[in-house]
Structure formats: C-alpha cells, structure tokens
Amino acid sequence: MEEEKKPIKTADVEDEQTSSKKKQDYLYAVGRRKTAVAQVRVYKKGDGKFSVNEKDVTKYFPSAELLERVKSPLVLAGQIDKLDITVKTKGGGIAGQADAVRHGISRALLMLNPNFRKPLKKAGFLTRDARIKERKKPGLKRARKAPQWTKR
Q1: What digits encode the pLDDT tens for the residues 61-81?
Q2: What is the pTM of this model?
Q3: SS3 sequence, the chain?
Q4: What are phi and psi of 54, to 5 degrees?
Q5: How confident is the model at residue 152 (pLDDT cuts 50, 70, 90)?
Q6: Contact yes or no for 120/77 (Cβ under 8 A)
Q7: Residue from 132, 134, 133, 127 nearest 31 by CA
Q8: What would the pLDDT profile of 91-148 be if each residue is shown by its tens digit?
Q9: Structural domain boundaries of the chain?
Q10: Which long-range contacts (CB under 8 A, 24 or more apart) does 57-64 make?
Q11: Domain 25-123 has what CATH class?
C-alpha cells in the first residue's frame, strides 16, 4: 500500500513567497540590556505611532527620562514622525527595558539607512551594554562581600 506523493506545484510556492514579501513591510531588530530583551518592529510607512507591549509608549514608560531615552535614536536620526514602531519587551526592570528598546530601535534604523551608523555609533546606541549582575560565590555573603574576619 504505497501512497502516491503529489508533486508540489511551483506556482503555489511562488504565491506563498510573494505573499510573505507583501506582509513584511517592517524592519525587525532585537535589543538587549541586563536581562531585558526587546523585539522591535519598525514600519517604514507610518505617522509616528509608538507602542510597547500593546500600550502607548507614554503609558508604559511614564518617566520623562525613560521616554527620552527610548526616543533618542529616532530624534537623532530625524525619523520621529515618519515611522511606526511596535515593541514586545520582557525581562529585567523598566530601566533595563528602556535601554533594550533603544538598542533595538537603533539596530532597526541602521537597516533602514546605513548612513545613520555614524551618529548612532557616536552616541553609543549600537553598543550592547553587557553589564549584568554578578553571581553570588560560595562562602561569600554576596558576589564579593566576605564574612567579617576574626583573629581569635
């Protein structure tokens, strides 16, 4: 009882490939900081909509400092009102997430236009800040704090 294998039509495959190209009208990048990860989608044709975890960016990052930190690559590149951005972020705290979003937006802007590299690099937005919390070592109270030494 052998099953007959039907040949795949090349037209169907081409239709699937072209439809996926039509759907992908955004640039995707991942930003990281501490234990926070941000998946950033930058839509080329937009009017400045910015959402983080399906909330408005001003609601998700209520602090003016964090909001400025998140929008700084867009301001530097002059793309603040020309692109729509959606972000999914998880892990870490709110400050780490803000830096992860900034890193992801910077990487996506670089894909949009390679000429943005010089100002973004100079501002330090393309460098992944690798500082994370150091692990606790055995025999110590914290990562480096040792118990008080007694002579007798």
Answers
A1: 999 999 999 999 999 999 999
A2: 0.79
A3: CCCCCCCCCHHHHHHHHHHHHHHCCEEEEEEEECCEEEEEEEECCCCCCEEECCEEHHHHCCCHHHHHHHHHHHHHHCCCCCCEEEEEEECCCHHHHHHHHHHHHHHHHHHHCHHHHHHHHHHCCCCCCCCCCCCCCCCCCCCCCCCCCCCC
A4: 60, 20
A5: confident
A6: yes
A7: 127
A8: 999 999 999 999 999 999 999 999 999 999 999 999 999 999 999 999 999 999 999 9
A9: 25-123
A10: 61/94, 61/98, 63/94
A11: alpha beta
Which value, in Å, is the radius of gyration of the alpha carbons in the chain?
A: 23
| pLDDT of the residue at 2 | 56
Burial of 12-45, coded b for 16+ CB within 10 Å and e otherwise, reads: eeeeeeeeeeeeeebbebebbbbebbbbbbbeee
Q: Tally the residues of the chain.
A: 152
Beta carbons of 33 and 96 less than 8 angstroms apart: yes
Q: What is the pLDDT of residues 12-38, one digit of tens each?
A: 444 455 444 445 589 999 999 999 999
* More confident of the two residues 49 and 14: 49
Neighbours of 125 (CB within 10 A): 22
